[in-house]
Write a structure and sequence with these properties.
The complex is a heterodimer of chains A (358) and B (253). With 358 residues, chain A is mainly alpha-helical. Helices cover 80% and strands 0% of the residues of chain A. Chain A has 15 helices and no strands. In chain A, α7 packs antiparallel against α13, α9 crosses α11 and α12 runs antiparallel to α13. The longest helix of chain A is centred in the first third of the chain and has 44 residues. With 253 residues, chain B is of the alpha/beta class. A six-stranded mixed β-sheet of chain B has the order 6-7-8-3-9-10, with helices on both faces. The chains are: A mainly alpha (358), B alpha/beta (253).
Chain lengths: 358, 253
Amino acid sequence: MIKNTDVDLFPQKIISDKKKKDDKFNLVKAILLDIFFVFYSIIVVQRAIYLKYIMDIHDLPFSWNEIIILFIASILIGTFWALTRTSLSCKLFGIAKDNNVTKWTVEIFAWFLFDITFIAGWVVTKISIVSIFSGEGLAGAERLFGAMFRPEFGIFDDALFAMIETIYIALIATLISIPPTLILSFFTARNLMKDNKISFAVYYILRLILNFVRSIEPLIWAIIFSVWVGIGPFAGMIALLVHTIASNAKLYSEAIEGIEEGPVEAISATGANKVQIVWHAVVPQIILPFLSFTIYRWDINVRMATIIGLVGGGGIGTMLMQYQGLARWHEVGLIILMIAFVVWIMDYISAKIREAIY
Amino acid sequence: MILEIQNLHKVYNNGTHALKGVSFEVKEGEFLVVIGLSGSGKSTLLRSINRLIEPTSGAVRFLGKDITHIKGEELRKIKSQIGMVFQQFNLIKRRSVLSNVINGKLGSLGTINTILEKYSDEVYKEAYSCLEIVGIGDKAKVRADSLSGGQQQRVAIARSLMQNPKLLLADEPVASLDPATSNSIMQYFEKVNKDFGTTVICNLHFLSLVRRYATRVIALKAGEIIYEGLPSDINEGWFKTIYGEEAEEVEIK
């Protein structure tokens, strides 16, 4: 017979302990967030709205002492406010008192935050209705649009070749991205990696790297690679490739995280090993979303490839940059027309293909 | 004794105490039915047997061998001897019926061959004969999700038969099927039990099905066994104890 194992389990206690711990943790978070809210409000109201907008001072004086004093004040106010349990953050973390004071402070403060943010945004963006409708400005725009609506077809052959180059840059970047993205996506899918500590660490680090790579725009990657491998289509292709891998690995891994668990459970119940489970239960569920993401990405990459050309990534973008620099607006008009046409076609084709495979 | 469960506990990470010291034994060739309300721990119990979830404490003995803490290759070997059928069928929807059935054999085939899907003629023959047993040999080439619910569950049974299981676990196999189909699915379990001597442990909701197919019944309530005995001995009083005072028995033909 098997020995009886002594069990010492108090689920109720575990739950209530967990709740107490959560509450404490939430209060700390609420205090920090309230401090931020107060500090943000003070800074925005004082600098952007009062000094810049109402007093109309252009070069704002800046001193660290002032900032530090305001910050200390915010710490005091924010902490006090959160501890009363009537603040906006308390409400957000679900630890606020349920009374009218909370209701009113939360509502008023939320509107206040929204309003000052909008006003500050208006001030910072330097929105000016006047400059849109000034006579001089309108004349310039008219000249430019006038030229662009009479495109110069003399450079059509060159533009066509540049366009083809752009499409191929996008295509190759997308194709080469597939194998590494596939492999990475399995290692960045939480449901496949959470089982033990080592795999979870791998998951975490890879996610971090991918997030970092993705947060840098392809345009910046193109600048980096045009220095690294020299200006031209190759730099543009690598830039797109790097960004495509990072973006699609996220989309792919999210598709993996969204699969039905049932088939995975069923296959693992047959005694299959990890590789077999992934191949026979996970892969069949994700092939179509993967295909769809990849085709969509090609479409996105064609658009990005035109932009990347602006910083030396080759293709039609580079050509556009040259004619724009020479202020030859008739030629620019033709190039823009071609870009719009190709992007439209790509959009249509990729939508049709994605419809067809589902 | 094919299976011995000793003082099994399961506490989930969220604190739910799903099993509170469950102990019972299963003899070879039995058709054991586990009944109880939703949330009484039936699914947890079944999944603790083939270790789809890890029990918190206690022991599971399969064919005299303690399998509570085995890992890796050893665990996979045990899993491959225990078939399982689920409420939601859990087939790979976009694959053919045949490849779904062959999936049951994965535990005993080489990884490379299963990835390339190179199977011997014997495996194919076996898959077809499993499909014949559940009466859908003609559907082998069809995509799994084009079948009706009852047919999908038969594919799932065929998949578990591919394992030549000593023990077959069924987690509410008829809960998403209509009454007529439920009965026919239960007949396939009975056939497997009688013809191949496979021990069956099955979670069920409908007492009329329990009375017809079970050789023995265990009732769970809030993670504890409150009844163990013959299906015919479950009277009105026991029924109210198991399902609560409010419950009324629903007939299923």
